[in-house]
Amino acid sequence: MKTIEDKKCSAFATERCSYLDCTFEDMDAKGAIIKGSEFEDCIFTRCDLSLVDLTDVSFRNVRFVECMMQGMIFHRLNLFLFSMHFENCRLDQSLFYNMDLKSCKIQECQLRQVVFEDCKMLKFSFKNCLLEGTTFDHCDLTQADFTEVVGLDLDPERNKIKGARFSPQSALGLLNKYQIKIE
Q: 18, 35, 140, 144: which could join 124 in a potential S-S bond, CB 3.0 to 4.6 Å?
């Protein structure tokens, strides 16, 4: 496997490449094939990574800042030592399935029509996130923090929410399935 270290990159080199301490800025990699690649201690800033095939890709301590990442299928990642941080990103229409997200942070992001299914999200925080149309199904959201979200729609009967925190506004999203009106 080819290794690229401590470099500012404008494109991916090849499939099955190892990137260590690299910076990717203003890169359009929409639909790129990076199967089996490894990223460690890397930062992506203002990149379009929409529809990138994440099959067997490793992200270890990787930050995404102001990135477009629509239609991503995150459960295809290699989850060994997995750690990702998203700041001010668009993750619309992405899928997180059967993942332990304790080493993942999502802050000030837009997550429209995202699916979280069978995920462990203990003490997870969606700080200043838009969650319109996002679904949570059979997720463990124990002690999760939803106090600073907009557009929450969460079925408490299909998810574990013991000790989770909600603002008065986000708590209304727990009642959507009942189609009631609160005046």
A: 144
Which CATH number does the domain housing residue 119 bear? 2.160.20.80
User: 173 is written with which tokens?
Assistant: 């999203």
In the chain, the number of structural domains is 1
Per-residue pLDDT of 61-81, as tens digits, reads: 999 999 999 999 999 999 988
pLDDT value at 15 more than 90: no
Distance CA 14, CA 18 (A): 10
Domain that holds residue 122: 2-178
Question: In angstroms, rounded to a whole number, what is the distance separating the alpha carbons of residues 29 and 69?
Answer: 10
Domain assignment of residue 152, yes or no: yes
CA distance 122 to 168: 21
Residue 101 CA to residue 168 CA, distance in Å, equals 25
DSSP state letter for 106: E
183 within a domain of the structure (yes/no)? no
Cβ-contact 37, 59 below 8 angstroms: no
Is position 141 within any domain?
A: yes
pTM of the model: 0.91
100's tokens: 């332990």
